[in-house]
Amino acid sequence: MIVEPQGRLQRASLRARVTWLAAFCVAGAVALVSLGAYMVVRKSTYDALDDGLRQRAATVANGTKVTTPDEVANYPAAFLAAGDVKMGVLLADPGKIIYPKDSTPPPSVQEAWDVADGDRPEVIWTDHKTETRVIAVAYQPGQAIIIAQSMVPQRTTLAKLSVVLLLIGGAGVLLAAIAGTAVARTSLRPVQRLTEATERVTNTGDLTPIPVAGDDELARLTHSFNAMLGAVAESQERQRRLVADAGHELRTPLTSMRTNLELLLASERPDAPTLSQEDKTEIQADVRAQIDELTTLIGDLVELAREDAPQVIHEPVDLHEVVERSLDRARRRASNVTFDVQLQPWTLLGDSSALERAVLNLLDNAVKFSPAGSAVRLNLRQIGDGSAVVEVADAGPGIADADLPHVFERFYRSTEARTLPGSGLGLAIVKQVAQRHGGTATAGRAPEGGALFTLRLPGRP
Q1: pTM score, two decimals?
Q2: Measured on CA atoms in the order 87, 90, 94, 96, is the torsion positive or negative?
């Protein structure tokens, strides 16, 4: 099966890809620089060769004139051989080349004969067969000086230069690959730690944060990962506490209900002592109360679990109507107290059912601690900073200073509240609803002397 290069690259590790990227970038840069340097040196070398040929030709052309073939033939060939040069004279008539004895004639082309005929001043070319650079310049009428010089030294120099550039480029690519590997190994070490931490969390559930070093992008990624681990750990701890507290709170009513039911069943046996009708009625009333308590507790637990789950809130809510619906439900439950109500219009984006449950919990809590014949104050008002508050105040005994920091904790119940019905989850639901809507829930003392609970929510009139 043929594997595409892109597929092989995608399967390579990030460290290998960084190494290859560094090597390819350096290789491209070195190749461009080497090619540019080679082309500049090559052009300079051949230009210098051409300039030398022109100077020699000019020196010969402006020197002592030789007019006969014998004079050319008797020119010392050793001088030419020492300079690795070939020289001759083109005679247009009778169309031949004369050159020194004991030497070889320089190559010629048709353009060189044109120079001898006077059609052009000079011509220069490369003879690849003899690896020489040749120039022909006008000499005397009907004659042209032709000089050829070997290109072997220049080509040898250029060959050596290409080898040097190749070796330097290869060394640069190798060093770039080594440096890329080192940089990748160092830079990707936080990513490796993140990978190991993710695998550790998956395999063991260990949410220990990862050590962070530096302040670059990978360090910020590690901080974000640690924040996620912290959020997961906090969520698990909340779930653990909820399960533990729920088990503790459910144990008491279930034990009491089981005891009462076993007593009722035992009294029905033929050989067991009978219970009076008054005792049976009392036990049945206890069972009903315990069922109501369990129903309330389970409902609150379900509400808390629903509030713990992340939800997107984007429904327009009229808080005035929400508070009125909660007030109607609270009035049906409480016939021994009155309500002093002052409401202003307010709207926000949120969950109307959750907000109604939170306000109802505040009202039920106020009714529970208010003496008969007293009034519960309910206000919905704007406070001028882009938010509004729902205030619920009662005329009860108030909240002790030691209990104020804990009233919104799950299953927390003050000493005075332990003898009253309730699960200890109502105010916890209020706090979660407030936070979910970008608000806050606070507790304090009311001017009437009782407790004052404030639900602050953003929105607009």
Answers
A1: 0.46
A2: positive
